[in-house]
Amino acid sequence: MKKETLIKITKYFLDFMFYAGIVVTATLPLSMKFLGEYIPNFVEHYGELVIIYFVLGIAALVIIRELRKIFKTVINKNCFVRENVVSLDKMFKWSFFIVLMSVVRSVVFLSIAMLVVILVFTIAGVFSKVLSFVFEEAISYKEENDFTI
Fold it and tell me: Is the pTM of this model over 0.85?
């Protein structure tokens, strides 16, 4: 698969996730009522779960928005810019916010899936922070090279 094709597919996938995430987050009260017909715990903790999932949805949307910003720089073939370091740092902070909210959610309604979410976002947060260090270093090298020429 060509590099450009993969980049375009990934961009469309991120766009889809972003807009689908807005729809899912906005319709949480309705979908939680629907799911409550099949999962009794959702009815019992309806208010708490709607609030927690709404906050988690917003946090996930912020992370996807930052990924979309980074992808614009990839498409423009100008990845090593300070804005990407800022985006990666935001992704780090929001990932750990999701971990914190997921721990709170686990107190209300514990599930194996939520433990997986905690693990995945812990890894994603650490990975984002390490990447921000790598990008920061690459930008320093790039700026140093630009001054040399």
Answer: yes
